[in-house]
Design a protein that fits this description.
about 600 residues; alpha/beta; Rossmann fold; 4 domains; five-stranded mixed beta sheet; 22 strands; about 20% strand
Length: about 600
């Protein structure tokens, strides 16, 4: 055993390796991405790791391996769980032979997501047990326990971490690789009565699941991580108590301290809820404040326990307005809630005697300087000037095309949705030119079926694949079009052009978006063709392929018209002394601004980048 300073996601991955995981599959999505990347990087050599084409594929791959007796893990963020829920819902009825831990990273805030889904609620809906760690060190230990639990009860389990656990850091003790657990894998044993889901099997297994989960309420009441901290210090005789979980439990204890606090219950397994422990916790208390994010899971569970056992305890939280109903909690928000609840101003963080800190500068997200997506959007915008258009966006860096001055993203729903939404608009508004923008990674993850649907149903739309040959937004992970895997294998690239032609598209053209005149010309011509057609704008992500030169402005020729700034919104372009100015620390020499400048004031200067 040795000590390492680890990010939470690294700790989760190393905990899974220590538990003897045999297969890890997932799809990148902040804040979960580093779990799989760490499993691949720290692979002791006997673990299969893959970036799957999407979360559904990852879940099904892991399920197949778990049928053999292998220990498996799937990684995703909370919206990825929506993609994986189809196989998961049936898998809970079927069960597993080895172990299957579904690591879901929730994103309160949200910081980098479309939704604030709470996987604890999904656990209740799907009847899948949920483990909810409170710290980085506990995440390392708890995920090993989650594997043991999954194997013992032959069920998939959720391991629900949130952003503050995933991206937090702690110095923790971890096992050396020679100390990792091992287990025998029997292999898949044919048994249609167990592995083939039919209504009769579902009815039988549903009853068994309900019986098992009812029993687990008692089992998990004895789980050491579900615990009660007795009241002490000034609150030793208090009739008030606090219930919390995850990072919120740590916030609570940070505010209260260890020397003086009311009775505190920490819930590590929100489903099945540790009912007996909760009953013990509630005894003799008049009010309980539930501090949690995002859904009122603990609050509802304690309210149920009070009703079931005839207790008069008032349960307070999100449903009563004592905790914000949405958004991420913080030490400050928790301290305010506790100060009000306990009528103790001494625990409220901050002081009226101190000046308010200055506001943080606003830094909205923006496409990188030199990003080829900016050129792609600009080419389409110029080509379609004066025409009624609809631009469907999607999930990825290119969602930032919605910002001014580009304003090229009219909708964004979820991964792959833009292709089908463009069809829907087009079927109703026949005078609208409909475009669907999708990245190369998203195309493989969830875009192909939308193109099949468009071709089959004779939609009139233009598909624009923004191919920068990586999964840029989540950290440049490989995908089927990159020709390599997360384990370092060099494989045959899946050709987007060939896929589209195989579907049946007659017009599929690949264009360099940084060749602006050619790109505009191609868009004008292709958009006027009937049916489904595709333009592939291919240019490498600028974060991975930086040119050696930069652009410079000739102040003598620059009139200060600011067209380059007004139309492109490149962060490298600013104004200095009334003239356009290029920040060489950001410029990549893409030369899009040169093509936009009407006075020839911008040119490429070789050898300027160091």
């Amino acid at each position: 055993m040795h000590k390492e300073f680890l990010m939470g996601n690294e700790a989760i991955a190393l905990g899974a390796l220590a538990a003897g995981v045999d297969l890890v599959a997932g799809y990148p999505g902040t804040p979960s991405t580093e779990v799989l990347e760490t499993a691949a990087r720290r692979n002791p050599g006997n673990v299969y790791v893959e970036w799957s084409v999407n979360e559904k594929a990852a879940m099904e791959t892991a399920a197949g391996a778990a049928y053999t007796g292998a220990y498996t893990m799937v990684t995703m963020k909370q919206v990825g769980l929506n993609v994986a829920c189809d196989p998961l819902m049936s898998l809970e009825y079927i069960g597993v032979k080895g172990a299957l831990v579904v690591m879901v990273a929730d994103d309160p805030g949200p910081i980098s997501s479309q939704t604030e889904q709470d996987t604890r609620t999904f656990g209740m809906f799907s009847k899948v047990p949920v483990f909810d760690p409170s710290s980085v060190s506990e995440a390392y230990e708890m995920i090993r326990e989650a594997f043991e639990f999954s194997h013992k009860y032959q069920t998939p389990v959720f391991f629900r971490a949130t952003t503050r656990i995933d991206h937090g850091y702690e110095s923790i003790d971890i096992l050396d690789s020679e100390e990792y657990s091992t287990h025998a894998i029997e292999g898949f044993v044919k048994d249609p009565s167990k592995w083939v889901i039919f209504p009769r099997l579902s009815v039988k297994n549903h009853a068994l699941i309900e019986k098992r989960n009812a029993e687990l309420k008692d089992v998990l009441s004895g789980y050491e991580r579900n615990c009660i901290r007795p009241a002490c210090g000034a609150y030793a005789a208090s009739k008030k108590a606090v219930a919390s979980h995850g990072a919120n439990f740590m916030y609570t204890m940070d505010v209260l301290g260890n020397e003086s606090h009311p009775r505190v219950m920490r819930v590590a397994t929100p489903f099945p809820f540790p009912e007996k422990l909760a009953l013990e916790f509630l005894q003799g208390k008049e009010e309980v404040l539930c501090i949690e994010e995002l859904d009122p899971v603990i609050e509802r569970a304690l309210t149920y326990v009070c009703g079931k056992y005839g207790l008069q305890t008032k349960i307070l939280g999100k449903l009563t307005g004592h905790i914000a109903p949405s958004g991420e909690n913080s030490v400050d928000s928790v301290s305010s809630a506790l100060a009000d609840f306990l009528a103790d101003e001494s625990i409220r963080t901050g002081s009226a005697d101190l000046p308010a800190p200055p506001a943080l500068p606003v830094r909205p997200p923006v496409l990188c300087a030199g990003c080829p997506h900016r050129a792609s959007f600009y080419a389409v915008k110029q080509a379609m000037k004066g025409k009624k258009t609809f631009y469907a966006g999607d999930i990825g860096c290119y969602t930032l095309g919605n910002a001014q001055p580009l304003d090229m993203c009219d909708s964004c729903l979820c991964m792959g949705a833009g292709i089908n939404m463009a069809q829907g608009i087009g079927h109703i508004e026949h005078d609208t030119k409909c475009f669907a923008f999708v990245g190369d990674s998203t195309f493989f993850a969830s875009g192909i079926t939308g193109v099949v649907n468009a071709f089959y149903n004779q939609a009139d739309m233009t598909l624009v694949v923004l191919d920068n040959s990586t999964t840029a937004m989540t950290g440049h992970q490989p995908h089927p079009g990159t020709g390599r895997t997360v384990m370092g294998q060099i494989v045959e690239k899946v050709s987007i052009e060939n896929v589209l032609r195989a579907i049946g598209l007659q017009t599929v053209e690949t264009v360099d978006p940084l060749d602006l005149p050619a790109a505009i010309k191609a868009v004008k011509r292709i958009a006027d063709e009937p049916d489904v057609k595709a333009i592939i704008f291919r240019s490498p992500c600028i974060a991975l392929s930086k040119p050696a030169a930069v652009s410079v402005v000739d102040a003598k020729n620059c009139t200060g018209c600011r067209k380059c700034i007004r139309e492109l919104g490149c962060p490298a372009l600013t104004v200095k002394d009334g003239k356009a100015f290029i920040d060489h620390a950001q410029c990549t020499g893409c030369m899009l601004c040169e093509k936009v400048c009407p006075f020839g004031a911008i040119s490429l200067q070789e050898g300027r980048r160091k």
